Amino acid sequence: MKSTIVLIAFIFFVCSCDQETEVLVIDKCSLSFQIVISNGIDDDEPMDIADQIIDVYRSQEEAEQQKNKQFSIITNEQGLATIEGIECDDFFVRINRTGYGSYIEEYSSILETHLTPFYTVEFVEGYFFDEGNELLRKQKHISFKHPFVGQKSRYIFYQYDGPQFIDHSYLEDTLDVQIIDQIGDHSYVVEESKIGDLELYFDWPDDDVVRNIWTFRNDSLLISGIDDDLEGSYVASVKGWFQIEQDGYDFPLGEVEEPVFSFESNDFFSWSFYGSAYIGSLSLFDHEFSNVQLYHNSFSFIDGPYKLRCYTGDDGFVRTVIMDAYGMTITGMDLYLE
């Protein structure tokens, strides 16, 4: 009996040795980063960025939406940080830097273009990353799509007796609108400075210089006051006389293709109290703006003004028009690009 048991055990051992044992091998990879910032494209001595957070995601979609983050690393005083012991399948890194956008890159793409697992990400003054790895030049005037501190838009006023919209002469009065600070991921402090004696008491702020908070959301722009004190806005034509404007005003920034509005039609009175419309091309000071959108609202039902705001995602507000319901006076401002 004992001999039989030993024989069975031996046969089992021999059979087991003849079979190949599958071993699961997981490749681990490492990748070192150096994060620097330079004063320009030709700057040969960029500065290291310490305490820069680098986030790691499993997919590009998660990196763009900043969801399901795997982990983060932080650069040292030399701007260096290393990802160690991560599985070698695809993963994405995201580096957010205020004023310079968001850099996103896939690990496998880095290995394809670099012989060693060492990679330098360079932020450049005057440029930004738009959730990718391509440097884009910042524009000088305000953009709704890519707002940055320092962007400044200048507008030139005109005024005449309406109600038709006609060819007009510009005044010497101007308005400067500048982003002066960033206070959140999508919130900015914007200062508006009116230069000149032109007045429009019913629809404009009380002071020549006003500051508000502009918060860019998915398809809207919320203009609200600092410390809940809305001073009003010239370029957005927000005064606060009306309940809907007192606590801040939320402008829809979505794009529509109809109905179509034309300033040549001179048909101000055919519009409902609120609505969006499509303008298309608009030529101002020899500059052609494309895909221009319009948001219109009217307070004529309480003898208030008609308000038209024209904008593009790339160029922000390009034209604002107010028609006084009492005197039928047209007052407007157009974006001037040098």
Compose a concise summary of this entry.
10% of the residues lie in helices and 44% in strands. With 338 residues, it is mainly beta. Residues 1-26 have low confidence and may be disordered.
Protein architecture, described:
By secondary structure, the chain is mostly beta strands. The protein folds into two domains: 110 residues, Sandwich (Immunoglobulin-like), CATH 2.60.40.10; 185 residues. Helix content is 10%, strand content 44%. It has an eleven-stranded antiparallel β-sheet. A six-stranded mixed β-sheet has the order 4-3-6-7-9-10. Strands 1, 2, 5 and 8 form a four-stranded mixed β-sheet that branches. The radius of gyration is 30 Å and the shape is elongated.
- Written as H for each helix and E for each strand, in order along the chain, the element string is HEEEHEEEEHEEEEEEEEHEEEEEE
Helical stretch count? 4
For the sheet with most strands, the description reads:
11 strands, antiparallel
User: N- to C-terminal separation?
Assistant: 103 Å
In angstroms, what is the radius of gyration?
Answer: 30 Å
Mean of residue pLDDT values? 82
Structural domain tally: 2
Task: Find the structural class using helix and strand composition.
Answer: mainly beta
* Principal-axis shape: elongated
Low-confidence stretches: 1-26
Strand adjacency order, main sheet = 16-15-14-13-12-11-21-20-19-18-17
Which percent band covers the strand fraction? 35-45%
Q: Give the helix level as a range of percent.
A: 10-25%
Strand element count: 21
